[in-house]
Amino acid sequence: MIVMLNPKHNQQLLAQSLAELGVTAYPAGANRVMIAGNDADLANRLAQLPEVLEVVPVARPYPLASREFQQEDTVIQVRDVLIGGSKPVVMAGPCSVESVENIVDIAKAVKRLGGHVLRGGAFKPRSSPYSFQGHGEEGLKMMAMAREITGLAIVSEVMEPDKVALVAEYVDILQIGARNMQNYPLLREAGKSMKPVLLKRGLSGTIEEWLMAAEYILAQGNPNVILCERGIRTFETATRNTLDLNAVPVVKSLTHLPVIVDPSHGVGKRAFVRPMARAGVAAGADGVIVEIHPTPDQAMSDAAQTIDYQEFGLMVEEIHRISDVLHGTREKTVVGV
C-alpha cells in the first residue's frame, strides 16, 4: 500500500508510530512511503495516524513501478537528454570499449548522426571465460574521455555489487545486464547509487519478474529506472534471441517507467537490427539501444549483430519519422478513396 503523508509530518513521530505497528516503510517520492501488503486492518490503523493523509491500496506486487502508484509517465533527464519524453532516445556504441581512438571515433559518429547516449562495455559478461572481458576501469576512463569530447551521456554495465560505486563514478547511467536481472544484491546497490539504471530483461524473465526486479531498485528510493526489452530465449534458432515486441505495449500499460528496446541483442544479426528498431518504436518504445562500429566485422565482441555508421544513420532517421507520425508532428497525408 502507498501511504500519503502530510507535507508537515514529523519524521521522528512517524518512524516511532510505524515501529509500534511493526511495519517497514520504503521511500516512494515526496511525502509518500510504501508499505508491503494491503492488510485492511493495518490500513485503517495507519489512516488514524496524524501524519497520514491517505492510504492507497495497490494490487500489483510491484507497487512503486505500477501505474496504480503513478499514472503519468516517468521522464528521466540525463544531462540534456529526456528519456520517456515525446522523442525517442537513441543509445549507441560498441559492445566493448576497445581503445581511446576507437571509442572517440564512435562517439563522434553517434553525435553526428543523431544519437543521444554513448554505450560501451568496460566489464563484459561473456559466455566463454576465454573471450575478451573488457578493459575494466581503463575502459570507463576511455568512455569518460569520449563524453568530454562530444558531450554525450554514457551508459555502461556493472556486474558486481562492489563495483557499483566505481562504475557510478564514471557513467551517467548504470546498466544491469540480462544475466543479472535477478541479482538482488546488485539491484539494491544500483538503487542506492541514485544514478539512473537501465535494467535489461532477463533471457527467460517474465514481464512480472522484470517489473519485480525494477521494484528492488525503486525500493531504495531511486525513481530513475529505464526498462530495456533485449530479446528472450525461445525455441527459434533463426535469430540469436526473440525480440518480444509484445512486451512494449504490455509493459507500458502496467508501468509508468520508460521502456526502450535493444534490437542488436534481440535478433543477433545486423541485417535485422534496423527493421526491429523501427518496429520497437512503432510499438511504443521510448527509444533504442544498438551496437555500432566503424568496421563491424572487426569488432572485438558481438561483431555479427553490430551495424556500421551508414546503417545507424538510416536507422536514426527512420525511427524519428515513425515517432513523428505517431505523435502527430508530421504533416498528415490524405489518401483519396
UniProtKB/TrEMBL annotation:
Keywords per UniProt: Transferase
Source superkingdom: Bacteria
Keyword rRNA processing carried by entry: no
InterPro entries recorded: Aldolase_TIM, Class-I_DAHP_synthase, DAHP1/KDSA, DAHP_syn_2
UniProt signal peptide: none
Single GO MF annotation: transferase activity
Annotated GO biological process: aromatic amino acid family biosynthetic process
Domain DAHP synthetase I/KDSA, residue spans: 75-316
Pfam families in UniProt: DAHP_synth_1
Protein name: 3-deoxy-7-phosphoheptulonate synthase
Lineage, highest ranks first: Bacteria, Bacillati, Bacillota, Bacilli, Bacillales
Gene: aroG-1
